[in-house]
Backbone:
């Protein structure tokens, strides 16, 4: 199966990208694994004609926004994101109209139609830098209230908040963290900014998924409590075989991130199935918002 997939990737001049939460066999076969920012940058820069995106729908859409001339395949079309579904363009437009004029900063975990109404995008790796880069005292951040609250605590700007959240991260409670700390008193607690503010207050470090992998590598500590989707434990262990990683809660599982199998990747490549293409009238304004973020990240290396 793996050889067949690699053969088809070569034949179709395709690149396989995987998010850090994907199942181990998908991560092992991919050309690149990463967080949302790294995957967006790769999608913008690759020479491949086809991108097989192993992640969720908004990620494949982002690749299509950045690379309209490439074919972007999502091997399971039903792999969605519950947070991205918590905002629709009509609702966002109502909120924009109610507020005084201000930039709209949209987390990449959103649909292309919502990005199209936004000034600039951000990911968990660069949200604070993106907000600070804007020439405005107030911003509206969508759709993740937890990322927005975290960003607000790190910037002088007034942050207006859309009330969406990631159910996987929002599920982690302070009680889980206290229990994990009791069980592993020497471990460093790493949390993702999609977690609740009261959970982030207990964190030793707050990072994106790839940020956690880098932090664990550089840290002198040998054990870590991981406050994000449990799929991240696999790349953490792979990059740090001599260190130990404990999930902050085994409930932190995103079903959508586990949908894609090797069979799905093979079928998608064989029959060019599962194409995600953003219509041009939405893609163009969405492109501006995503590209602004990519340019900022590349120039500042954030
Ligand atoms: P990052 O990998 O960018 O930190 O994103 C986490 C996430 O929830 C993606 O769905
Ligand atoms: Fe969406 Fe949360 Fe799943 Fe990421 S982990 S895809 S934000 S529901």
Residues:
């Amino acid at each position: 199966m793996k050889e067949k997939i690699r053969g088809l990737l070569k034949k179709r001049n395709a690149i396989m990208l995987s998010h850090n939460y994907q199942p181990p066999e998908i991560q092992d076969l991919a050309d690149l694994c990463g967080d949302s920012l790294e995957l967006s940058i790769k999608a913008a820069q690759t020479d491949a004609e086809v991108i097989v995106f192993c992640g969720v729908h908004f990620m494949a859409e982002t690749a299509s926004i950045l690379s309209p001339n490439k074919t972007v395949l999502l091997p399971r079309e039903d792999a969605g994101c519950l947070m991205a579904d918590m905002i629709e363009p009509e609702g966002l437009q109502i909120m924009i109209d109610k507020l005084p004029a201000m930039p709209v900063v949209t987390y990449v975990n959103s649909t292309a139609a919502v990005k199209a109404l936004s000034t600039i995008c951000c990911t968990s790796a660069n949200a604070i830098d993106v907000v600070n880069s804007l020439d405005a005292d107030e911003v509206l951040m969508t759709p993740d209230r937890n990322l927005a609250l975290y960003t607000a605590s790190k910037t002088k700007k007034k942050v207006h908040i859309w009330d969406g959240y990631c159910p996987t991260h929002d599920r982690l409670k302070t009680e889980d963290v206290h229990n994990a700390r009791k069980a592993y008193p020497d471990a460093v607690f790493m949390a993702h900014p999609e977690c609740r503010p009261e959970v982030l207050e207990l964190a030793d470090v707050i990072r994106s998924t790839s940020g956690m992998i880098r932090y664990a590598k550089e840290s002198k500590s040998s054990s870590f409590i991981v406050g994000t989707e449990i799929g991240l434990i696999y790349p953490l262990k792979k990059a740090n075989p001599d260190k130990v990683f404990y999930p902050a809660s085994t409930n932190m599982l995103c079903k959508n991130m586990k949908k894609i199998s090797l069979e799905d990747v093979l079928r998608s490549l064989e029959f060019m199935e599962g194409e995600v293409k953003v219509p041009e009238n939405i893609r163009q304004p969405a492109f501006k918002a995503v590209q602004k973020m990519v340019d900022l990240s590349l120039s500042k290396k954030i």
